[in-house]
Design goal:
Largest sheet: none
Mean pLDDT: 83
Structural class: mainly alpha
Number of strands: 0
Strand content: under 5%
Low-confidence stretches: 98-108
Order of helices and strands: HHHHH
Length: 139
């Protein structure tokens, strides 16, 4: 399952929309690297990027929410924390499944199907639900 930035995800805030497009593109790159068998090291690097970028993005969204006195700020913030926890769990999942420490073996062995399914369910679908409900309600 690939993510696509569609019209129903547009919030109307140029900064937030551009960040959503970037995040969706990076999520797809993570899935592509898994599908291409690029290995766990590549997936870990993509997850690290997602973790850092979501910190920036969620910070920008929350600043906007405070600026407009968004009434569901606490609930929205909790959803952001939930997503950050998911990224951490995915990272741990990769670390636990990594297996042999030989660098060559790590490069050719890719993430498991269970990892890819978790990304699809807990990252791609989460993002669609979150943007179309929480983020659009701020706009």
């Amino acid at each position: 399952m690939r993510a696509e930035f569609t019209d129903d995800l547009i919030t109307g805030n140029e900064l937030i929309d551009s960040q959503h497009e970037e995040l969706i593109g990076r999520i797809n790159k993570l899935l592509d690297s898994c599908e291409a068998g690029e290995g766990k090291i590549s997936a870990i690097k993509m997850l690290d990027y997602l973790a850092k970028y979501t910190d920036t993005h969620f910070g920008d969204e929350e600043a906007l929410q405070k600026e407009v006195c968004y009434p569901d700020y606490d609930k929205h913030h909790a959803k952001h924390e939930e997503f950050k926890q998911t990224i951490q769990e995915l990272n741990e999942m990769l670390q636990e499944e990594e297996g042999p420490s030989d660098a060559f073996v790590q490069k050719v062995e890719g993430p498991s199907d269970a990892f890819v399914q978790k990304v699809e369910e807990h990252v791609v679908k989460w993002f669609y639900r979150h943007i179309s409900s929480f983020d659009r309600s701020v706009a």
